[in-house]
Write a structure and sequence with these properties.
CATH topology of chain B: ABC transporter involved in vitamin B12 uptake, BtuC
CATH class of chain B: Mainly Alpha
Number of domains of chain B: 1
Number of strands of chain A: 4
Strand order of the largest sheet of chain A: 1-2
Distance between the termini of chain A: 26 Å
Strand order of the largest sheet of chain B: 1-2
Number of strands of chain B: 2
Helix content of chain B: over 70%
Strand content of chain B: under 5%
Oligomer: heterodimer
Radius of gyration of chain A: 21 Å
Largest interface: A-B, 40 and 44 residues
Largest sheet of chain A: 2 strands, antiparallel
């Protein structure tokens, strides 16, 4: 319907991902811009940081699926990230080193990392059937500590605390993303390739998630979140959908986990602690619960904040050398503080702010 | 036998600290429905100020303890007044996540104050210990056990026999009805956080007393008190005490025996025993040993 973007004449258009042509144009423009960005002369630091953001966004989407959409509180996301990271590392690592390595291709280890994590998630899900609310949150908290303990002691897999190992190797069908190379006549640096790889993965995973939540499964998730008894009365199989929610969420976490540390080139068992879980919860809370776009915004915000503060410390006199606060310190304080601020003032997160800004300009200058 | 008794003493000392923290958790949860993840921060906040006044400034330890407890209680009250009160009636999860955010922010500041070196809290017990048979019992352990028992008995009596305790129980059971009876629910909320903060400060001081010392890692103790309240049931005061005993003793025994009998469970296994016990108990009893089972009405 030209000129009347809010008029839907079919369920199909009501549920469309991008209902209006304006949105479609903006979306395509954003994708093209993101694909061209690595060639715009960004520094290596920023490219790597953006790649980390994309990977974090995949993980945040996973947590949002189980916590934001299905309403099952999970503080255990770090555990599933850890499963993915070590499955990926073990399957792809060089055989013959001190840690397990099978030297397999990315075509195998990337799905495997997701699937093994999904299996772990499906095994945890039955606990969610017996436990509700805060009890579930505390069990998943315990899961993080137990998982960290296992990883710390499983030296042949993880290399041990403080020593660590190399994470998964980014080689797909003989092509190495972690080495500079030439694709279709364009020479690409390591960072540009990792950026493009993670960006494409994010787009695919985000679309898959968006399609999942607007399907029958997604509606079942929301029904369980809003009132599980009412959901089961109208015929939603609680067991099945809770298992699906945890499995899908963990699949995303596994994929994210296997890639999260490839960028830094080093993975250590102590990384998969409670703070990592909280980092992802912060992404969901700051970005906006039950919103795929929000998860991406939240991941970007949380991942880029330290670097932005670091850059800003050159101009802000109270930051950095001689100031009262170091950028790292301010980052942590802001990180905690922003969780509080968003929960109190904008429970819908950055996505909610975006919606309000958009609505304001819709009627501008006749806003009321 | 001596080894067993020694392990029991170690377990009881942990149980005492967990009991003090768990009492605070339960008081706050019962009256305000908030699961406080801010307790690690409150705990090291209190311990730091005791250490600051008793060691750095050098005043009398008991006075320093009093100042530390009061400051932490005030911090607890401030947390309730300025953040949580604005979210009354929101989902329990939002409230819990909010306290995680507070915990991170407060802990960054306190960690910065503590610095990298181990600090003492200037407690009068120090390294002194008493010998009983072959068992060595540190005096600070005796002190923390007595304190925990007094606190436990005191709070049970407080809830049962005083008007304020009755008001807190009424608020816990139904906030609106309590308000209709003329109870100031706001004041009860503030009181719960004041008591929780004060208990956390005392627990923090004990956890840092003697040879243990105060470092940035002390906050992990408060997280291990969470399994204690879950085992006992989130909303049960005597459950918290039983839970603290179970968790403390389990940790104490596994610290003593696991390395010898079950070495394949890995080093520092005792540190995760509380979570393992919690997992097992919850699989059998989803609302803990003494927790109120939620009755669902359709």
């Amino acid at each position: 319907m030209r000129g009347r973007p809010n008029l839907y004449t079919s369920y199909r258009s009501d549920g469309a991902i991008l209902p209006t042509s304006t949105q479609r144009v903006i979306f395509v423009a954003a994708i093209v811009a993101a694909l061209l960005l690595p060639f715009a002369g960004l520094s290596r630091t920023w490219l790597i940081l953006l790649a980390t953001t994309f990977v974090a966004a995949i993980g945040a989407i996973g947590l949002n699926l189980v916590t934001g959409y299905a309403g099952q509180i999970s503080l255990g996301h770090a555990f599933f990230l850890g499963v993915g990271a070590y499955v990926g590392a073990a399957l792809s690592g060089n055989p013959g080193t001190s840690v397990i390595g099978l030297g397999l291709d990315m075509l195998i280890w990337l799905p495997a990392a997701g699937l093994v994590a999904a299996l772990a998630g499906a095994l945890v899900a039955p606990i969610a059937l017996r436990l509700r609310g805060l009890y579930l949150a505390l069990v998943t908290l315990g899961l993080v500590f137990l998982g960290e303990h296992i990883l710390r002691n499983w030296d042949s897999l993880t290399g041990g605390t403080g020593i660590g190992r190399k994470p998964a190797v980014l080689s797909l069908l003989g092509w190495h993303f972690d080495q500079a190379g030439v694709i279709a006549g364009i020479s690409l640096s390591r960072e540009q390739q990792i950026y493009l790889l993670t960006f494409i993965l994010l787009v695919v995973m985000a679309f898959a998630a968006k399609n999942l939540v607007r399907s029958r499964v997604g509606r079942a998730f929301s029904a369980i979140r809003d009132r599980d008894i009412a959901a089961s009365v109208i015929g939603v199989d609680l067991t099945r959908y809770k298992v699906v929610a945890f499995a899908v969420s963990s699949f995303y976490a596994g994929i994210a986990g296997s890639l999260y540390f490839t960028v830094t080139g080093f993975v250590e068992p102590a990384s998969f602690n409670l703070l990592l879980s909280i980092l992802f919860i912060a992404m969901v809370v700051i970005g906006g619960a039950s919103s795929i776009a929000g998860s991406i915004m939240g991941a970007a915000f949380v991942t880029l904040l330290p670097q932005i503060l670091d850059t800003a410390s050159d101009w802000l006199p109270f930051l950095g050398g001689g100031g009262i606060l170091s950028p790292a310190l301010l980052d942590r304080i802001l990180f905690g503080g922003l969780i509080v601020v968003f929960l109190i003032f904008e429970p819908l997160g950055l996505y909610g702010i975006w919606i309000r800004v958009r609505n304001y300009w819709k009627a501008w200058p006749f806003s009321y | 036998m001596t080894q067993f008794l020694q392990a029991t003493v170690a377990g009881l000392s942990l149980a005492s600290i967990y009991a003090l923290l768990a009492l605070g958790f339960v008081i706050i949860f019962k009256s305000t429905q908030v699961l406080s993840f801010a307790h690690p921060a409150l705990m090291i906040f209190g311990a730091y100020f005791v250490s600051y006044f008793a060691v750095t400034v050098g005043i009398n330890f008991w006075l320093a303890l009093l100042i530390g407890v009061v400051l932490t209680a005030l911090l607890g009250a401030a947390i309730e007044r300025f953040t949580l009160r604005r979210l009354v009636g929101k989902p329990l999860f939002s409230l819990a996540i909010l306290t995680i955010g507070l915990d991170i922010s407060i802990r960054v500041v306190v960690n910065n104050l503590i610095g990298v070196n181990l600090r003492g809290v200037g407690d009068p017990w120090g390294f002194a210990s008493i010998r009983w048979g072959g068992v060595v019992i540190e005096q600070r352990v005796v002190a923390m056990f007595i304190t925990a028992v007094i606190a436990a008995v005191g709070f049970l009596a407080f809830f049962k026999f005083t008007r304020v305790g009755l008001a807190m129980r009424a608020t816990a059971s139904d906030q609106e009805v309590a308000m209709a009876q003329g109870i100031s629910v706001h004041r009860i909320f503030a009181l719960a956080w004041i008591l929780g903060g004060a208990l956390a400060a005392v627990a923090g001081m004990f956890a840092a007393s003697g040879a243990a010392g105060l470092s940035q890692n002390n906050w992990i103790v408060a997280l291990k008190a969470l399994p204690a309240i879950v085992v006992g049931g989130l909303d049960s005061v005597h459950g918290a005490i039983v839970g603290a005993l179970i968790i403390g003793l389990a940790e104490g025994y596994s610290a003593t025996y696991q390395a010898h009998y079950l070495p394949w469970l890995g080093t520092n296994f005792s540190q995760v025993v509380p979570y393992l016990v919690m997992l097992i108990v919850l699989l059998i009893k989803p609302y803990g040993l003494f927790g109120t089972e939620e009755v669902e009405r359709v």
